[in-house]
Design brief:
single chain; 198 residues; alpha+beta; 35% helix
């Protein structure tokens, strides 16, 4: 019997409880679009303006195509999104369902509107577990039924808060994260090895 099986048997003998996402998070916010608030790529713009394009394989990756914002715009964005360590970024517009966990407080970047900042309640749900969960195929099937809009599709934040998710005890969540992270690492190593052999 695996460690995960043992934990489930011990801590969830009657199954795993489902809860609404809104019940296990502190807040759900979004970034800010320029509109009349600020302009992109001004002469004094040194900070990065993160869109779905910069959300790559669970990380934020800046490129020479990444838009820039100045310090004043960065403050405005910070006031709206309130990004902190442990937050889960979720692309709620356009390409829906990409996730990133924030491991360091952002000092020179922030997010646009349509990237949601989910602040988990650490007593209820682990950030990495939530990120894996929202990126899973089964969960995507569920929330993609809630999308709205014409040309540009999005999932309204109010609908995302209603999303029912399995919430096992934290010990179980962390063991699931450990297994998934190990699998991801092995997959990356295998891909690198196959690429090298080609």
């Amino acid at each position: 019997m695996s460690k995960l099986d043992e934990l489930i048997k011990e801590l969830c003998p009657n199954g795993v409880e489902e809860k609404k996402l809104g019940d296990v998070i502190i807040s759900l916010r979004t970034g800010l679009n320029p509109r009349s608030f600020f302009k992109l790529n001004t002469d004094d713009a040194k900070n990065y303006y993160v869109t779905i394009r910069e959300m790559c394989n669970g990380d934020i990756v800046f490129t020479n195509r990444t838009d820039r914002i100045n310090d004043e715009a960065l403050k405005l964005c910070n006031n709206r999104s309130n990004l902190e360590v442990g937050d889960v970024l979720f692309s709620g517009t356009g390409t829906i369902g990409e996730t990133v966990v924030i491991y360091e407080t952002p000092s020179n970047w922030n997010i646009k509107e349509g990237i949601y900042s989910i602040k988990p309640n650490s007593k209820s749900i682990d950030s990495k577990f939530l990120s894996h969960l929202l990126g899973s195929r089964e969960m995507k099937k569920t929330y993609m039924k809630k999308i709205a809009g014409g040309t540009v599709k999005s999932i309204p934040m109010v609908e995302l808060k209603k999303l029912k998710i399995p919430v096992p005890p934290l010990e179980v969540q962390r063991e699931i994260v450990r297994i998934l992270d190990s699998f991801t690492l092995l997959t990356a190593e295998l891909t690198a090895e196959l690429t090298a052999r080609k």
